[in-house]
Amino acid sequence: MKSLGNIRREFAPWNKPDAKPYIQFKDVTKRFGDFTAVNNLSLSIYEREFFALLGASGCGKSTLLRMLAGFEEPTSGQILLDGQDLRGIPPYRRPVNMMFQSYALFPHMTVEQNIAFGLKQDGMPKAEIDQRVADMLKLVKLGQFAKRKPHQLSGGQRQRVALARAVAKRPKVLLLDEPLGALDKKLREETQFELMDLQQTLGLTFVVVTHDQEEAMTMADRIAILDKGEVMQVATPAEVYEAPGSRFVADFVGNINMFEGKVADRDGTGATIASANGVTIRTANAGDAAAGSEVAFAIRPEKIKVSSKKPESGDNVMEGEIYDIAYLGDMTIFHVQLGNGQVVKASSLNATRATEDPLSWDDKAWISFRNDAGVVLTR
Amino acid sequence: MKHPLSAITDRLVIAVPYLWLLVFFLIPFFIVFKISLSTTAIAMPPYTPTLGLADGFSGLLSQISELSFDNYLWLTQDALYFNAYVSSAIIAGISTFLALLVGYPIAYGMARAPATIRPTLLMLVILPFWTSFLIRVYAWIGILKPEGLLNQLLLATGIIDQPLVILNTHSAIFIGIVYSYLPFMILPLYSALEKMDYSLIEAAQDLGCPPASAFWKITFPLSLPGVIAGCLLVFIPAVGEFVIPDLLGGSQTLMIGKTLWNEFFANRDWPVSSAVAVILLLLLVVPIMFFQQAQARAQEQGR
């Protein structure tokens, strides 16, 4: 398979065999009574990386973050930061800072005092504190709000104060627990880019917990997808999307069509897959799926073309009927019901205002996709 | 447009607390105030003049002209009253501080307890109110007297070999007041601590603050409205407390509640005891106003 790499910038220490991980979870398990929040998990995060822990609620992502911050100790296993075992080190002695989901701003202190709090704990001289606080206020563009109390600020401003307070101590690692969860959609999108800029400017390692895949895809260098306390896949956003490692990841990130079936025949890197409901799929990319094994063929909606006439050529062409149409403005999602009853989602960008190939409900339609458009999932 | 009837009902609703205050506070207060301006007499009631319209309107006017502030002057001339006020304030102040010391950890423990058992803990705090206040204070005599339960226990375990003298001392009053008014301290403290977000403490620790320091920098300042409310709820009634110093404090204890009782029942001097009561009320208005202001501020911050 050709490498998908990192589309953002030339930064991929995880591909270098000699690179030393900055944060390491080694066989970490965390139990709360009978409940296993984190199950024998290992994970490496590199210096200056923007790392996202993505998963549904209860998948253990917040527990991982809290163990890094020192609010929870692992039941078993080891957490290393820059080679140092963190076990037994209380939160107030760890060189990490956290931005809380609720922001946890001290309500009886002004913005300034909130930001200065951590610096005062370190016994920094007053003049230096003042300078640092001023820098931080400038960084998050809240200069004129220095003397306000948190309850006099908007949600977005509070979020910035929380961020400024967490980075004021220049921690080795910044932990962010659902940093944008409380913001509305528009502000969230703006703030995503601000967070990325900030991470670049300060050169810190960011570990962010989120349940929002779009947020993780936008911001992170790599994403760890968690389920039931286990890592399902760790990869760059592009890899997670284009080459999901399992049915769970494929289904969790974005929209996808799945054809469950068996590998009927293998030839070189490619294969023919016979789905259980009678569809035959040609793929050029079957990985290590053995002939006869149970697999799922997964394909993203935008990689499927819908047309009213049968395409002249194509690796995979199937006939069906338009079952549903969702018009989203920038694109349209067609739900096409195949002859065998399966409904396939296909999206097309609305590049022109008038649709060249007008399709309507119950119209006969053809779907087609190239043989390198999908992935074969063995897990 | 608003219905005219609803405007009337609105006013009625607002009027209820004012009416309550008028009937049960202002009118009685004026009666006491009026008595404090009278002079004692061997009569029923034991003071003159009794205002009335028996001699017509001019009679009432001449009766009013007989009223004087002599009783208040008298209070300043006898050091007994001044000492009683000061001693009451000191005893109430010490008791309040002790109640805070005892009540804060209890309230803190309750607020940090699992949410499922908090209602039970709250009920346990107010449980003593289910028995008579007087009986509970009497019970302390049985515990604190030289041959009482406490001394028996301490002697039996060999911690002391002479019974401690606690009853009829200030210590007994402190114990009595702290015990009796502890729920008034715990409840406002609990409500302030319970609504505090625990992630604030975690944030403080995350920023390098050890737990003990986080308590003084975050928890305590945020619980201040509760501390002020609790202290005033204990201090205000404790200043005028009569039953506890009378039963536990013995004869040499000087407190304004006892002085008042003596003037009223032993000396049958209604006017002077009324003057004592009026002054006590005026002295307590200051902390009450302070309390109200603190409440208003707490409400504003809670937003």
From TrEMBL, chain A:
According to UniProt, the name of this protein is Spermidine/putrescine import ATP-binding protein PotA
Q: What is its EC number?
A: 7.6.2.11
**Recorded family membership:** Belongs to the ABC transporter superfamily. Spermidine/putrescine importer (TC 3.A.1.11.1) family.
Per the record, the domain of life is Bacteria
Stated role: Part of the ABC transporter complex PotABCD involved in spermidine/putrescine import. Responsible for energy coupling to the transport system.
Q: Which Gene3D superfamilies match?
A: 2.40.50.100, Nucleic acid-binding proteins, P-loop containing nucleotide triphosphate hydrolases
Annotated keywords: ATP-binding, Cell inner membrane, Cell membrane, Membrane, Nucleotide-binding, Translocase, Transport
Pfam families for the chain: ABC_tran (PF00005), TOBE_2 (PF08402)
Q: What is the lineage of its organism?
A: Bacteria, Pseudomonadati, Pseudomonadota, Alphaproteobacteria, Hyphomicrobiales
Q: Which GO terms describe its molecular function?
A: ATP binding
Q: Describe, as the record does, how this protein assembles with itself and its partners.
A: The complex is composed of two ATP-binding proteins (PotA), two transmembrane proteins (PotB and PotC) and a solute-binding protein (PotD).
| Organism expressing this protein natively | Aminobacter carboxidus
Note the PANTHER family from the entry.
PUTRESCINE TRANSPORT ATP-BINDING PROTEIN POTG (PTHR42781:SF5), SPERMIDINE/PUTRESCINE IMPORT ATP-BINDING PROTEIN POTA (PTHR42781)
Query: What reaction is this protein's catalytic activity?
Result: ATP + H2O + polyamine-[polyamine-binding protein]Side 1 = ADP + phosphate + polyamineSide 2 + [polyamine-binding protein]Side 1
The residues covered by the ABC transporter domain are 23-253
TrEMBL record, chain B:
Q: Where are the transmembrane segments?
A: 12-37, 84-108, 120-141, 172-193, 214-239, 270-291
Q: Name one GO cellular component term.
A: plasma membrane
The cellular location(s) given in this protein's UniProt record come to: Cell membrane
The UniProt entry, under Gene3D superfamilies, shows: MetI-like
Q: Which superkingdom, per the lineage?
A: Bacteria
Ranges for the ABC transmembrane type-1 domain? 85-291
PROSITE patterns noted in UniProt: ABC_TM1
List the InterPro entries.
Answer: MetI-like, MetI-like_sf
Question: What are the protein's UniProt keywords?
Answer: Cell membrane, Membrane, Transmembrane, Transmembrane helix, Transport
Query: One Pfam family, short name please?
Result: BPD_transp_1
Q: Which GO terms describe its biological process?
A: transmembrane transport
Q: How does it sit in the membrane?
A: Multi-pass membrane protein
Signal peptide annotation: none
Q: Belongs to which family?
A: Belongs to the binding-protein-dependent transport system permease family. CysTW subfamily.
Name the UniProt record assigns to this protein: ABC transporter permease subunit
